[in-house]
Amino acid sequence: MKQFIAFVRKEFFHVLRDRRTLLILFGMPIAQILIFGFALTNEVKDSEILVVDYAKDDASQQIITEIAASRYFNIRNAALTHKEMLSTFQKGKIKAVIVFPASFNRYLLHNNQAQIQVITDATDINTANMITNYLTAIIKDYQAKINENLLVPYQIIPETRMLYNPQLKGAHGFVPGVMALVLMLVSVMMTAISIVREKEMGTMEILLVSPFKPVLVIFAKAFPYLILSLINVTAILFLSVFALDLPVKGSLLLLFLESTLFIITCLALGIFISIKTDSQQIAMLISLMGMLLPTMMFSGFLFPIENMPVPLQVISNIIPSKWFYIIVKSIMIKGLGIGSLWKETLILAGMTLFLLTVSLKSFKIRLQ
Amino acid sequence: MEEKVIVCDKLTKRFGYFIATNEISFEVNKGEIFGFLGANGAGKTTAMRMLCGLSAPTSGSATIAGYDVYSETEKIKRNIGYMSQKFSLYENLTVLENVEFFGGIYGLTDQEIKEKTEELASKLGLKSEMKKLVGSLPLGWKQKLSFSVAVLHEPKIVFLDEPTGGVDPVTRRQFWDLIYEAADRRITVFVTTHYMDEAEYCNRISIMVDGRIEVLDTPANLKKQFQANSMDEVFYQLARSAKRADS
C-alpha cells in the first residue's frame, strides 16, 4: 500500500508540473461549458422586440403577455408604418417585429385560424433562427392552452420561414455532452499518453524490474486520472448549476456513481490503447480519432441519433459515451432514478468489464 | 569457494524460428564486476531481460541470487537493481522526489529513505541540487544519480545496460568509481558496454556472437589468447565473424 501511495504521489507530480496537461485538464471543461452555455443562452436573452398590434383584442394581448413573461424578450409596443419599421431595423436596435393583424381574435374564433407575422433581422442568422423558434414555441404553447377544452381546434399560424425547432428541445443537452467529451479526453487520452510516455522514456522497464507488481503499475497510473476526472465532473456540475442555472433534478449521488463507472470505462480504454501503442503521438491520435470523434458524432450530443441511417444507429450502440450521455441527461434534466436507468448502466458496466479484461490480458501477454 | 549469484545453464530464448539467445551457460561470483559484451543484435538484451525476470526463457535454467528465473521472478526483482541504456529517472521530478519514489516502490521505510538520501547527496556532491528537477542536470550527473538510485535498496546484483552511452571520458571514469565502490560493498555488477576501455575495468568478461557466448575470461587472459594488444582487437576479431545483421 505504501508503494502504491508513493506511486500515486509521483503521478500527481507529473500532472501538476506539466502546464499543458493542467490546461487541458481544467481549462478545457470550463471553457467548453462557458462557450456552449453562453453561445446558446446569451444571444437570445433580453432581445429587444417590437410588437405591432392592430388587433388589440383578448387573444393578441394574451400572447403578448406570454412573450413578455419569457426571459428571452423585452417588448416595446408601437404602432408603426412599414417604412418606420424598416428604419428601426436598420438602426439595429431591435431583433424582431411581431405583427398581429386586425381582428386577430375574430379570425381565430370564427375561422378557427389566424395569422401572426414574425419578421426577424436575419443579418445574424443564428440569432434570427433562435428568436423565430422561441416565438413560435410560445405561440404554440398558447395555442395548446386555448385548445385544451375544444373539439375543433383553433389554429394560429405564425407566418415565418424558419420552422424547424431543435434548439428549444435540446438547449441544455450540452452539459451532459460536454461531460462525456471531457471525461473521454481526460480519462482516455491522458491515461494512454501517461502510460506510453513511461514506455518511451524507458522508465517502464525500470518499473517492471522493480518488485512493484505490473498490474499495480497500471492501476497506480490510472488512479490519479480517476480523481482528476471526478474533480472535473464536480467543476462541470458546479458551473452548470451556478453559471447556467441548470439544476440537477435527479440524485447527485447516483450521478457521481454513474460518472465513476463511465470514468472507469474510459480508463480501461486508455489502458488498452497504451498497451497496443508505443509512441505518445500514436496514442494521442488514436484517442482523438478513435474516441473523441465518435463521442461527438454518435453520443447524440451534437447530432440526434434518431435521424441517422440505421447502420449508423447500430454503430452508435457500441460507443460507451452514448450510454453515459443518456444516463446523465436523464438524471440531470428528467430527474430519473436508477429504476429507469438500470439497462444503460448495465450496458456500460458490461463494456467496462470487457475492456478491463481484454487490456489486462494483453498486458500480461506483452510481458512474456 | 566463491558464492555464485548468477548461474546460467543452457539458457535459450526463441522468437518463432529466431533463436535470440542460444544455450548460454556461465556463472558470476558475488561482488564480481562482470562485463557482458557483444555487437548490436548479438542477444545481450534478450539474455539480460531473462535474467531480470522480464521475459521467460524458452529452455535451459538459471538462478539469480539463488532464485529460479521461471518460478521466482518476484523474489528476483527484490534482489536486483536495474539501469537501462535509456536514461531512467523522471525528468520532471526533482532529485529528491525521484529518490523518494524509487525508495518507495522498493518498499524502503521513510527512515531508510531519509538516510539514503543524505548519503547519496553527499557522495555525489548534489546537496544543493536535491530540489532541482532532474531534467535540468547535466547528463553525467544524471547517469551517476541513476546508478545510485539503482543500488538504493542494496540489491545483491545490479544490471547495467550500456550505462555510459554518450558520456565524456572523465565522467565515465567517475562512473566506474561508483561501480567499484558498489563492488566493494559486495554488490555484483553485471554490465553491458560498447566501450572497450570499460571492458578492461571488469573482473571477467564474456563476448556474445550470434546468440552464443563465444569467449569468457579475464581481460588479460583474453588478450593473451587472441594475441592482441587491446580488448578492441579481441572484440573486432570475434565480432567480424558474426552472421547476424544489426537488429
From TrEMBL, chain A:
Spell out the protein name for this chain.
ABC-2 type transport system permease protein
For whether the record's keyword set contains Membrane, the answer is yes
What PROSITE patterns does the record tag this protein with?
ABC_TM2
A Gene Ontology molecular function term of the record: ABC-type transporter activity
Transmembrane segments annotated in the record for this chain: 21-40, 174-196, 216-244, 250-275, 282-303, 345-363
What is the membrane topology listed in the Swiss-Prot or TrEMBL record?
A: Multi-pass membrane protein
Locations listed in the record: Cell membrane
Keywords, A to Z? Cell membrane, Membrane, Transmembrane, Transmembrane helix, Transport
From TrEMBL, chain B:
Cellular compartments annotated: Membrane
Q: Per its UniProt record, what InterPro entries does this chain match?
A: AAA+_ATPase (IPR003593), ABC_transporter-like_ATP-bd (IPR003439), P-loop_NTPase (IPR027417)
Give the record's keywords alphabetically: ATP-binding, Membrane, Nucleotide-binding, Transmembrane, Transmembrane helix, Transport
GO cellular component entries: membrane
Q: Tell whether Ligase is among the UniProt keywords.
A: no
A molecular function (GO) term: ATP hydrolysis activity
Give the way it sits in the membrane: Multi-pass membrane protein
What PROSITE patterns does the record tag this protein with? ABC_TRANSPORTER_2
Q: Where is the ABC transporter domain?
A: 6-235
Q: What is this protein called?
A: ABC-2 type transport system ATP-binding protein
Query: Which source organism?
Result: Dyadobacter psychrophilus
